[in-house]
Structures are given as C-alpha cells and as structure tokens.
Specification:
The protein is an alpha+beta fold. Helices cover about 30% and strands about 40% of the residues. The strands form 3 sheets. Strands 1, 2, 3, 4, 5, 6 and 7 form a 7-stranded mixed sheet that branches. The chain has a 6-stranded antiparallel β-barrel with strand order 8-11-14-13-12-15. Strands 9-10 form a two-stranded antiparallel sheet. It is globular.
C-alpha cells in the first residue's frame, strides 16, 4: 500500500510539474505573423484641374504644400515588416500562408491599407543684410496606415490599429528623402510598440532581493533568456486578487531588469513602489509583472 501511495504521489507530482511548465511556456508564447494584402489608398488618385490650381495658389500664399509621395509605397511596406519583426512575442514569417504553417490557431496575418504617404514642404523667403532675396525649403514626412490583424487559421479579425509616422512632433529636413526616412522610422516604432502592448511579456516576482528598511530595492522575476528578457526592459508590477471568481489587478510599482541571470530568472531594480512591493512580498501576495515597452 505504501508503495502504491508513493507511486501515485510521484505520478501526480509529475502531472502538476508538467502542467506548470506548460503554463509557463504558453504564458509568453511566440506568435508568427505575416503580411497579407497591402494596398495604397491613393495609388491611382489624380488631381483635378481645379484642385491643382487651388494647390498652387495655396502654396504661393502660405509657402506650404503637401504632395502624395507614391514612390515610397514599397518603403512603407518594408517599414511595416520592420515593425512587425521588432516586437517581443512576434516573429515575421513570409511563408505563413502555406496550409501546414497555419494549423496552429493564434498565428496572425496582417493586411495593410496605406492611407497616406506625404511630403510637406515649407518655403520661407526673406531679405538678407545685403537686401538680397533668400529662399529656403524644408521637408516633413508623413506616413499613415491601418493594419487589420486576423487569426491565420480562423480568419477572425483580432484588431484594427492605425499608425502614423509623424511622431510626437514634426521635424523638418533638407530633402524629401530624409523627411520620409524619418517618418518611416517612427512609423515602424509605433507598430512595434503597439504589438508589445497588445501581447506583453509576463512574469512573476519570485523572491525579494535587496531591501532597505521598509522598501524593496531589488527583486527576482521568473523571466529570462528563454522568453526574451533583456537588460533595461521596463515592467509594471501588479497585485493579483480573485474577486467573485474574477481576476482583479492593482498596479503597485515599476521595475527595470538589471541583469538576466538564466533561462528563467532575472534581477530587477525597483524604480517605483518599493514600499508597497515589500509589503506585498512579506504578506505572500501574488505579484504579476508585465512589460510596458
């Protein structure tokens, strides 16, 4: 009987361990993503005679003009690919549309509608100290597009995010090429940032490290090389509680990874909320950690 009970205990222990490992692996699963249809809304658009005259008059009066830069359509497509490739939990795969590659639900196809590729010009005229007329022209690039993310197996639409490449402020450049290049860099960044928010990395605080009085200074989390942790990654800390069968989260602090110390462990510096984090650790609370970038 003792042998039987020992065997059953080992068996159930193995099941629990395997289930725990599966949950950890699925927690930050990698999704494959590929491009589907790419369209440009202004591809065959032509300006009427009246619109052309109005455009010229506006340029003369204001010194500003806006031109659709259709020649950069392929560059926008490449910028989308760069954005999709840079996210923590996504891997760009150009061959995902093959039947054998879409068997697993959750992989994503991204259709792209490019709504705007513009070069804005700003011409300034002035008199110099010798009373000679001087003219300078600067350029600003603008890129806008909407992505439709669909489940590669089921065809279900998952999200319709829109992105622009202007950034927080408009920067001026000496040439239109430089302006568009800058806009495309910002455009790719926005896509990567959105995907990282859409499917963030998750971990748990597993142990407190350095503490000073009533404040936690450093902690260990169960995220490492295997799931894409890296030094400098910023993360938010949440206390998790179950209320009426539902998970409730309350943010109590912020962390930054100081050192990745193994496949599933990293040392983090507490940047905010050290007092609340220490109190939660001492109380045995479940502390969830989610990437913020």
């Amino acid at each position: 009987m003792k042998k039987l009970l020992l065997t059953l205990a080992i068996f159930f222990c193995c099941i629990v361990t395997a289930s725990s490992q599966d949950a950890q692996t699925d927690r930050n699963r990698i999704f494959r993503i590929t491009l589907g249809n790419v369209q440009y809304a202004h591809h065959d658009e032509k300006m009427s005679t009246g619109e052309a005259v109005g455009h010229v008059l506006s340029t003369v009066l204001t010194g500003q003009s806006t031109i659709q830069s259709t020649q950069y359509e392929e560059d926008v497509k490449n910028a989308v690919i760069k954005g999709l490739s840079g996210a923590h939990r996504f891997r760009f795969n150009n061959g995902l549309l093959q039947a054998e590659d879409v068997a697993e639900q959750g992989n994503i196809v991204a259709d792209v509608l490019i709504t705007n590729i513009q070069t804005k010009t700003n011409t300034r005229t002035w008199k110099d100290k010798d009373d000679k007329t001087q003219v300078s022209t600067t350029f600003t690039g603008v890129v806008n597009a909407m992505l439709t993310l669909k489940d590669a197996k089921m065809g279900e639409v998952l999200a319709n995010p829109s992105f622009d490449g202007q950034g927080l402020s408009l920067s001026s450049y000496a040439t239109s090429e430089e302006a568009i290049k800058s806009a495309l860099e910002r455009f790719s960044y926005h896509i990567t940032s959105w995907l990282n928010q859409y499917r963030p990395l998750q971990a748990n605080i597993i142990e407190g490290a350095t503490a000073k009085k009533d404040k936690q200074k450093e902690v260990y989390i169960d995220l490492g090389n295997r799931e894409g942790a890296y030094k400098g990654l910023h993360m938010a800390v949440y206390i998790i509680k179950i209320i009426a069968g539902r998970e409730a989260r309350s943010q109590v602090g912020k962390l930054k990874i100081e050192a990745v110390e193994g496949d599933d462990i990293s040392l983090c510096k507490v940047q905010h909320g050290g007092k609340d984090i220490k109190a939660a650790i001492d109380a045995g609370e479940h502390l969830l950690v989610i990437s913020t970038e």
